[in-house]
C-alpha cells in the first residue's frame, strides 16, 4: 500500500551529546533502557531510525550482517539503532566498528519473552511476535520516531511496533518468508514431535500476518522472489534486496586436495541442525563408506549439540571460527543440505566466494540465480547428492573450473559494493534531501 506523502516532523532541538552510562542494576524482571550517543552529531543530515529485535554485534549471523551492511550503505545519513537485548552482556557490549550515530538498547530477558509466548498460545498472535513484545521498547519507539526522517524495521518482530504509524516513511526489512520455511518443515521426517507441533502452530498464525504486515509499510524488502511469490506480495512495494558478500573477507582460495565435506552454519538454529542431521543420516554414510570422506560442521555449536554430532563416526565439529576460511582447510566441497529454508542461504554465497565447490539442495538454491552445473551443483534426492559429491571428490579439474565460475558469479552479482547502490536508491525513493543526490549520483 502506498500512502500519501509524509509530512516531515520538526527536528528535535534536544542535544545528542551525552556520556556513555553504565548498566544500572535494576530489580529482577524490570525492563531497562540504555542509550549510547556520540559527540558532535551533525543536525543537517537525513536521520534514519533502525529497529532491531536482536543486538547486531558481534555480527555472527546472516541477518545481523545484512542489517549492518544496510546501515553502511546509508553512510550519508545519521542512523540511530534501537535494539532489544536479551542479555546483560549485550547491554554492556561496546562495538568498535559501529556504523550507527547513536545506539539505544532495551533489556528484554528471555524469561519475560517465554512468559509472553505462553500467554499468546491461546490467541492467534504469531509466537515470534509475542516473544519480542516489550512495553519499554514500544515507549522508546514512540519517543524516537519524531526525531527521525525515515524508519527501518528489521524483521516483522519489530515491524509490529510501527502499526498505525503514519508520520515518516517506513521500510520493513522482512528478509525471508519465515512461514514458507515452517511450511516445508511441518511434516518432514527426522524432526521431533515438539518441532512439528511448533512449526504447524506458528504456520497457521504467521503466514496470514506475513501477507498482511507489508501492506502497512511504504516498502518491504525480501531476499528472494520465491518468498515474495509464496506470500503473494505486490512487486511494486515489495523489493528484492539480496544478501551480499564482502569479498575482502572471503579471499578466493580454490579447493585443493582434501577429503572433507564442509557445512557452515550456527547450530543453535533449528533449520541448520535439521540440515546437518539430514546430511549425516541420509547422505554421509555412503560418502564415508565408499570414499572415506569426513564431514566437518563449522560454526557456533552448543555443547549438547556438539556431543550429539560427534557420536557419528567421521563427523568433526570446529565450533565458532574467526573466519569461515579458517575452517575449510582440506575441504574439497561445501554442502547446503537445508530442507526448510527461506530467502537466501548465506552459506552458499560463502562457499562460492571462497572457491569451495558447492552442492546444495533445491531449497538452498532458491534465490541464488547461479547456473547449476557450472557455478554450483543442485540435488533433489539424497542419492543425487552422493553422486555429485563423489564426482567432485574424484575430479580436481572439475573442482577448479567450478570454483572459478562461482567466484566470477559472486563478484558480478553479490559484491556488497554493488548492492550498496541499490539500497541507497530504494531508500531515496521514500526520502528527500541533499543526501539523496550525493548517495546515488
- Architecture per CATH nomenclature, i.e. the level-2 architecture of the largest domain: 3-Layer(aba) Sandwich
Roughly what is the average pLDDT, rounded to an integer? 87
CATH topology of the largest domain: Rossmann fold
Shape: globular
Q: Tell how many strands the DSSP assignment holds.
A: 14
Beta-strand residue fraction: 15-25%
Helix content: 40-55%
CATH top-level class of the largest domain: Alpha Beta
CATH homologous superfamily label of the largest domain: Glycogen Phosphorylase B
Distance between the termini: 28 Å
User: How many domain regions?
Assistant: 2
Summed up, the helix count is 19
Rounded Rg = 22 Å
Major sheet: arrangement of strands:
1-4-3-2-5-6-7-8
Biggest sheet character:
8 strands, mixed
Q: Which structural class fits the helix and strand makeup?
A: alpha/beta
Low-confidence stretches: 1-31, 38-42, 433-441
Amino acid at each position: 500500500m502506498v500512502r500519501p506523502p509524509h509530512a516531515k516532523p520538526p527536528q528535535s532541538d534536544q542535544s545528542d551529546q551525552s556520556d556513555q552510562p553504565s548498566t544500572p542494576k535494576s530489580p529482577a524482571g524490570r525492563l531497562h533502557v540504555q542509550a549510547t550517543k556520540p559527540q558532535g552529531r551533525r543536525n543537517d543530515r537525513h536521520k534514519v531510525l533502525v529497529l532491531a529485535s536482536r543486538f547486531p554485534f558481534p555480527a555472527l549471523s546472516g541477518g545481523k550482517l545484512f542489517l549492518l551492511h544496510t546501515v553502511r550503505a546509508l553512510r550519508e545519513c545519521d542512523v540511530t539503532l534501537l535494539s532489544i537485548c536479551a542479555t546483560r552482556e549485550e547491554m554492556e557490549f561496546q562495538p568498535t566498528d559501529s556504523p550507527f550515530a547513536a545506539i539505544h538498547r532495551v533489556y528484554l530477558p528471555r524469561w519475560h519473552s517465554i512468559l509472553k509466548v505462553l500467554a499468546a498460545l491461546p490467541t492467534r498472535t504469531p509466537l515470534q511476535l509475542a516473544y519480542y513484545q516489550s512495553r519499554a521498547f514500544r515507549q522508546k519507539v514512540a519517543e524516537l520516531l519524531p526525531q527521525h526522517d525515515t524508519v527501518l524495521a528489521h524483521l516483522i518482530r519489530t515491524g509490529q511496533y510501527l502499526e498505525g504509524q503514519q508520520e515518516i516513511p517506513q521500510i520493513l526489512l522482512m528478509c525471508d518468508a519465515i512461514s514458507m520455511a515452517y511450511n516445508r518443515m511441518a511434516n518432514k521426517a527426522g524432526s521431533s514431535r515438539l518441532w512439528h507441533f511448533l512449526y504447524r502452530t506458528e504456520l497457521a498464525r504467521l503466514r496470514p500476518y506475513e501477507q498482511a504486515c507489508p501492506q502497512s509499510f511504504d516498502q518491504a524488502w525480501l531476499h528472494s522472489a520465491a518468498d515474495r511469490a509464496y506470500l503473494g506480495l505486490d512487486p511494486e512495494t515489495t523489493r528484492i534486496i539480496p544478501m551480499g558478500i564482502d569479498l575482502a573477507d572471503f579471499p578466493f582460495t580454490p579447493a585443493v586436495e582434501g577429503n572433507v565435506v564442509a557445512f557452515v552454519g550456527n547450530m543453535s538454529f533449528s533449520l541448520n541442525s535439521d540440515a546437518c542431521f539430514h546430511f549425516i543420516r541420509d547422505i554421509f554414510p555412503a560418502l564415508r563408506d565408499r570414499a572415506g570422506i569426513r564431514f566437518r560442521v563449522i560454526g557456533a555449536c552448543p555443547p549438547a549439540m556438539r556431543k550429539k554430532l560427534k557420536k557419528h563416526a567421521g563427523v568433526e565439529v570446529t565450533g565458532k571460527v574467526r573466519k569461515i576460511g579458517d575452517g575449510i582447510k582440506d575441504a574439497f566441497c561445501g554442502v547446503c543440505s537445508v530442507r526448510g529454508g527461506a530467502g537466501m542461504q548465506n552459506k552458499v554465497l560463502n562457499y562460492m566466494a571462497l572457491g569451495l565447490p558447492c552442492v546444495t539442495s533445491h531449497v538452498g538454491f532458491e534465490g541464488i540465480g547461479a547456473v547449476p552445473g557450472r557455478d554450483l551443483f543442485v540435488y533433489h534426492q539424497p542419492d543425487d547428492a552422493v553422486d555429485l559429491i563423489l564426482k567432485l571428490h574424484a575430479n580436481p579439474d572439475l573442482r577448479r573450473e567450478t570454483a572459478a565460475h562461482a567466484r566470477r558469479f559472486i563478484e558480478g552479482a553479490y559484491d556488497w559494493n554493488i548492492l550498496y547502490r541499490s539500497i541507497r536508491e530504494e531508500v531515496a525513493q521514500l526520502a528527500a534531501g541533499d543526501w539523496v543526490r550525493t548517495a546515488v549520483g
